[in-house]
C-alpha cells in the first residue's frame, strides 16, 4: 500500500545526481533559480522539484489508486484502454504491473464524459481527489512553461497557448502499481522499457527507487534516488520538438527497486502535460530566432514530426501494445524523439 513504511534507498547502487529546483523561488522570479531550472532542462532534462505544494493531493491520489487497483480484475478490465492507441483507462502488463490513466478533460468536465468513463472508486473521488491533483499539477507545469517560453525567446504566452487548460488534449494523471519482486533474476529486467515521454512535461512522484536515466554520452543506466517531498520532473518529446532540441527529452526506463526495496510493492504517480491534441509537433522557428538558430545548427535532426500531438501519442501507445507488435519496426514506432535502438 502507498502509505506503508518503506526501507531507505540503498547507498551501494549507481545513481545520477539531479539539480534540486525550488518551485516557490521560480514562482517568485528568482533569476538564479530560473537559470538552474534552465540548466537542468537543457542538459539531462530531469530535475527534482521541491516546495511544489502538492503533498496532500499526491497522498490522496495514491489512496485513490490503491482503491481502484484493488477492485476485482473483472471490474477493472471493463475500463481497459484497448489496442486502438487510446491512453486513458486501465492497462495491465505481464508480471501484474498495472496502471490507471485519468484524462484531464474528463476530470475537469466531470460528470460530463469527454473521453472515457472510469471505475466507481475514481468517480467517487473525482471532485475531491483527482481534480485537485490535476489543477495543482497544471499550476506547477505552467510556471515552468512560462520560464521556458521566456528563455526560448518566444512571444509571451506562446507555450501556454499550445497547452490550453480547456482544450481537448491527451493530458492525464497516472497511478501505477508494480508488485514486489518475486525473483532476484528479474532485478535488471525493465518494468517499463527505454523511452522518452510522449508530451511536454512530466510531474512524477515515486516512493521507491526504480526510475533510471541514461545521460547523453553514456551507455549505462543510472538510478534516480527518490527524495521524500520532492517531485521528479522531466522534459518530454513535444517540448524537445517545439524548442528545436534545446530542451532535452532524455531516455529513461523503470526497473524493479534496488536492494531490499525490491521486496515491496512499488507505486508511482505522474501527471503528463501534453499539447492540445490538434497542435502540430514541430520546431517553432518562425516564432523565435533562438530556436531557428538551434535548428540550423543540427541539420542531421528532423524537427518536423508531421504529426499532431494526438497522432504522436496514438502511434506510440498503439505500437506498445503486444497485440499490435509485428517486429522491430513497430517497436521503433513506439519510441520517442531520443530513441536509442540499443537501449532496453
Structure characterization notes:
The chain is built from eleven helices and 14 strands. The protein is α+β, with helices and mostly antiparallel strands and 344 residues long. It has a single domain, classed as Jelly Rolls, CATH 2.60.120.330. The protein is globular. The chain starts with 19 loop residues before the first strand and ends in an 11-residue tail after the last helix. The model has no long low-confidence stretch (mean pLDDT 91).
Question: Summed up, what is this model?
Answer:
By secondary structure, the chain is an alpha+beta fold. The protein contains 11 helices and 14 strands.
- CATH topology name: Jelly Rolls
CATH homologous superfamily, by name? B-lactam Antibiotic, Isopenicillin N Synthase, Chain
Give, in spatial order, the strands making up the sheet with the most strands.
Answer: 1-2-10-7-12-5-4-3
Strand tally: 14
Through-space gap between termini: 29 Å
- Give the fraction of residues assigned to helices: 25-40%
Q: What would you call the structural class? A: alpha+beta
- What is Rg? 19 Å
Tally of individual domains: 1
For the residues shown, what is the average pLDDT? Answer: 91
What's the helix-strand series? EHHEHHEEHHHEEEEEEHEEEHEHH
Tell me, what's the shape? globular
**Residues in β-strands, percent:** 15-25%
| Tally of helical segments | 11
Report the uncertain regions.
Answer: none
CATH class: Mainly Beta
Let me know the largest β-sheet.
Answer: 8 strands, mixed
CATH architecture: Sandwich
Amino acid at each position: 500500500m502507498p502509505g506503508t513504511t518503506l526501507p531507505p534507498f540503498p547507498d551501494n547502487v549507481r545513481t545520477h545526481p539531479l539539480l534540486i529546483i525550488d518551485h516557490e523561488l521560480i514562482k517568485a522570479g528568482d533569476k538564479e533559480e530560473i537559470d538552474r531550472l534552465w540548466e537542468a532542462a537543457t542538459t539531462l532534462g530531469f530535475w527534482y522539484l521541491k516546495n511544489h505544494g502538492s503533498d496532500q493531493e499526491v497522498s490522496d491520489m495514491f489512496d485513490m489508486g490503491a482503491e481502484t487497483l484493488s477492485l476485482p480484475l473483472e471490474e477493472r478490465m471493463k475500463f481497459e484502454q484497448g489496442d486502438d492507441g487510446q491512453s486513458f483507462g486501465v492497462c495491465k502488463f505481464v508480471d501484474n504491473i498495472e496502471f490507471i490513466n485519468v484524462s484531464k478533460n474528463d476530470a475537469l468536465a466531470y460528470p460530463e464524459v469527454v473521453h472515457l468513463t472510469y471505475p466507481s472508486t475514481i468517480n467517487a473521488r473525482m471532485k475531491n481527489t483527482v481534480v485537485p491533483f490535476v489543477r495543482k499539477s497544471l499550476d506547477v507545469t505552467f510556471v515552468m512553461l512560462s520560464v521556458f517560453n521566456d528563455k526560448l525567446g518566444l512571444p509571451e504566452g506562446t507555450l501556454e497557448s499550445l497547452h490550453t487548460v480547456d482544450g481537448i488534449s491527451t493530458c492525464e494523471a497516472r497511478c501505477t502499481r508494480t508488485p514486489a519482486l518475486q525473483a532476484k533474476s528479474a532485478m535488471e529486467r525493465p518494468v517499463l522499457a527505454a523511452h522518452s515521454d510522449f508530451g511536454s512535461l512530466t510531474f512524477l512522484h515515486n516512493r521507491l527507487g526504480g526510475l533510471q536515466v541514461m545521460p547523453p554520452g553514456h551507455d549505462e543506466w543510472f538510478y534516480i534516488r527518490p527524495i521524500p517531498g520532492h517531485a521528479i520532473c522531466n522534459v518530454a518529446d513535444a517540448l524537445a520538438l517545439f524548442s528545436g532540441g534545446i530542451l532535452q527529452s532524455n531516455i529513461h526506463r523503470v526497473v524493479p527497486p534496488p536492494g531490499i526495496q525490491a521486496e515491496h510493492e512499488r507505486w508511482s504517480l505522474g501527471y503528463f502535460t501534453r499539447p492540445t491534441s490538434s497542435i502540430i509537433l514541430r520546431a517553432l522557428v518562425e516564432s523565435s530566432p533562438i530556436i531557428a538558430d538551434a535548428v540550423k545548427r543540427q541539420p542531421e535532426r528532423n524537427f518536423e514530426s508531421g504529426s499532431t500531438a494526438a497522432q504522436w501519442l496514438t502511434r506510440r501507445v498503439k505500437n506498445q501494445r503486444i497485440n499490435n507488435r509485428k517486429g522491430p519496426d513497430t517497436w521503433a514506432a513506439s519510441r520517442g524523439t531520443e530513441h536509442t535502438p540499443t537501449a532496453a
